[in-house]
Amino acid sequence: MSVLDRKVLRDLWQMRGQALAIALVMACGVAAFVMSLSMLHALENTQERYYEDYQFPHIFVHLKRAPRTLLERLVTVPGVSQAQARIVEDVTLDMPALAEPAVGRLISLPEHGEARMNRLYLRRGRWLEPGRSEEVLANEAFAEAHGLHPGDSLVAIINGRRQQLRIVGVVLSPEYIYQIRPGDMLPDAKRFGVLWMNETDLAAAFDMEGAFNDLTLRLMPGAPEPEVIRRIDRLTADYGSLGAYGRTDQTSNLFISNELRQLRSMALIVPIIFLAVAAFLMNIVITRLIGTQREQIATLKAFGYSRVEIGWHYLKMVLVLVVLGSVLGTAVGTWMGAGMTALYTRFFHFPVLRYRLDPPVIGLGFLACAASAVGGALGAVRRAVRQPPAEAMRPEPPQSFRPTVIERLGFERFFSPALRMILRQMERRPLRALLSALVIALATAILVVGDFVGGSVQYALDTYFHLAQRQDVTVLFGEPSEGRVVYDLGHLPGVRSCESFRNVPARLHFGPRSRRLVIQGVERQGELNRLIDFHQQPLVVPAQGLVLSRKLAELLDAHVGDALTVEVLEGLRPVREVLVVGVMEDFFGTNAYMERTALNRLMREGPLVSGAYLAVDSARLTELYDKLKHCPGVAVVVVKEAALKSFEDTIAENLLIIKSFMVVFACIIAFGVVYNSVRITLAERARELATLRVIGFTRAEVSRILLGELAVLTVLAIPGGLWLGHALAELDTLVNDTELFRLPLWIEPSTYGFAVVVTLSAALVSGLIVRRQIDRLDLVSVLKTKE
Amino acid sequence: MIDSSTAILPALDGPRGQAVFQARGITKVYRMGEVEVQALRGVDLDLFPSEFVVLLGPSGSGKSTLLNILGGLDVPTSGTVRYQNHDLSAENDALLTRYRRQHVGFVFQFYNLIPSLTARENVALITEIAANPMPPEEALALVGLSERMNHFPSQMSGGEQQRVAIARAIAKRPDVLLCDEPTGALDVTTGIVVLDVIARVNRELGTTTVVITHNAVIAGMADRVITLSDGRIVAQKSNAAKRSARELVW
Questions:
Q1: What is the domain extent for residue B143?
Q2: Closest chain A residue by Cα to residue B179
Q3: Closest approach of A385 to chain B, Cα-based (Å)
């Protein structure tokens, strides 16, 4: 090792506290990067392989009933490589552990041979045997939620008849990686199970012999999906098709893509912010380190070391920290990534989710870290090596000071000499003071962003589930029913109030764009399901026209006053022009609302309803559930609290884990930044402070001058940091503005409070550490040596 | 006071043959904070091989500036300086760096040792980049510090630190040794030890040596004494008989 390299190590050891703090800040950036990117890769690769190996379809169609002969025509559509017909029916399950009815989705499996698409992965047990009508395969999430094993039985109510089904195997399907009942916003594995049965038995139970009601297609590579969808729609329209759709609208896939998108943005934005802080910090530290080593640089130059050699020497110092930060960050990021990936398996059900750290991820993390650090240090290093050696050899010219602006304005009598020193020091080098304040502000901002997600999610949940959705139970009918059914429901035990709604599957077209969704016909003066926006303002649905989610309006590029073409996918399938009369900022999904009777008119039907919201006396829930289980028309019962709880147990918990990582990172950064600032100030001003001690200042007075600067900077930085935090939080909500979920920019006062407290604590602790060093300042040696 | 003029310009071929340094009409103006300082106001100077020169003068007379220019640390504002066939007045960092690396040894008033390196390592810092260095141990033995090789600067006295600095300067076997107030921060006894080492290097290695001082007593050690004042050479004298450092008293 060359002597200069030894100097690198010894200098770093000398400033080990600071070096460690910088390395930790960089480690945070690298850890966030490695964690998100490795998780992203793990999920992407697993998903891709799973889709290919288990033949996940490209196109999906659900219809009322079509003859099997239609299949032959479907496969002739150009671009289609395979088609598979199935029978899919939702039934009520009577689970012993649940008072309320659960929904079971029965899917047919061909009696002989393997399914062509959506092949199942057998986790436990065995496959179905032909001719055994009671046998089913259950999906893993549902089986786990109920502790069901092969050999266990459950009761389904099929066409009004209670039927005992026996689970022979537990399986996974690429169609239900994220297991959520289409139409729900939150997964609930306890109340939604997917069961596979022999086709013959299912067909017999639902009178579907020689027919099917669900179709999946795989396309040839490069086939034009929109064109295929148009042709499939034309062929299936007469059979009650709900409209063909591609993978992007497939519920499970949509949720996974959404998660991947968020991971992608997290892999980008968070490390960029962290590494930017590291770069600023590096700039400040290296600039000042070089300032204190001015003479050493001049000496090296005097003896013939070249600019390149000296520049390289300081860059090596930076690189040692980069390596330290990268190694630490990669280790922590890998650990967190593996842990988080394992957490993902709680709601993403893959046969195997392999977490693997790719060398390119490590390499990229290192490069990003090195780029930011070197970028931060380069300016300082270049200035240092350019300095003419003779100039560096001379003592620095006395710094020119003058009274600060505030003093010149006549306020000087309010300032003590100590405060004047602090203010003049800062005013003389405003850029440096600004940069220090900026870095502290960034740390505060990261604290705000790290913490705000929790409050924001809570706000969204509270608004949506308590202010907007005030029902306890939602009942969905198998078929649209007469409005008076609502009166019957209203007389069920425990029901306090009841409100009907009409849901109509449709495609909205505007110009070249279209979306497939369910138009929700709601009561005009609805009390149980209200439209409440981001600002918790209720919205009354106009008597005519459509109200769209802001996200949906954006996707269609439609505005209030535009006429959309509504292509209904149910009943008489009317196609009508409907005006957009409102756009609302909501939290979940892409929704289109209409007044219920207006929707009935559009459908050219009487006062039909698709279901009802019920407010229920909680003491009589069990009684109600028991009745609902045996209501023939009731297809689905959604229990709000249960769904909410399941959400809080899974996704919310994940969010909170990510949040706590962010908060830990932010604390490290805040501390690293503040500690470094004050250490450097001490190094620069040791001589001045020692002089003050010699002429009779007490330790406390000297500390006050040094820490006063820190205090002033911190106090200046905090408001800026809060503002910056708000801006970054806004960026975060913009990035996470997805079709599924939109986070409102809602920052709890406690989040701001938390950021301020942590920043101040970091300043306080750093101050105390440095205070101890001031106490140990060696007066004689400081003054004896040349500055 | 004698005005600097061609009258005292020494002959180009001195008693010791071809001059190694030739400075002609050099001036230097630099800014010190908000003040402009005229450090040199037209200096002509020749230095010869193996010569021991003492530059005398009060603070601010331009001694250090002249030394810096001779050492390639700084360039004159006007005028020319040549070292053998190197032009030292052109502002070419790479050229000056190479010149310092190959030919010059510096000793500073405040030693300028790298605090994080031991004595041996401070010397090795130079031997690692020099073309034909002596081993650091040998250089340290030459200044009588074999016993203290593994000590850090903070563990050594001022005199010891300065001797390390001298060892560092001579380890590359420089053609010229430039010392800026080498005894300025030292007490008399230590100062004499340090001067003795410098004289020994000059004698044994034949290194052209320039020592800056405002201590006139030291002038007794020199072959030639040049006095600067207010940026000009005001006197030059040659010593017929040099005194050894041990004989000096101040």
A1: 49-72+100-245
A2: A302
A3: 11
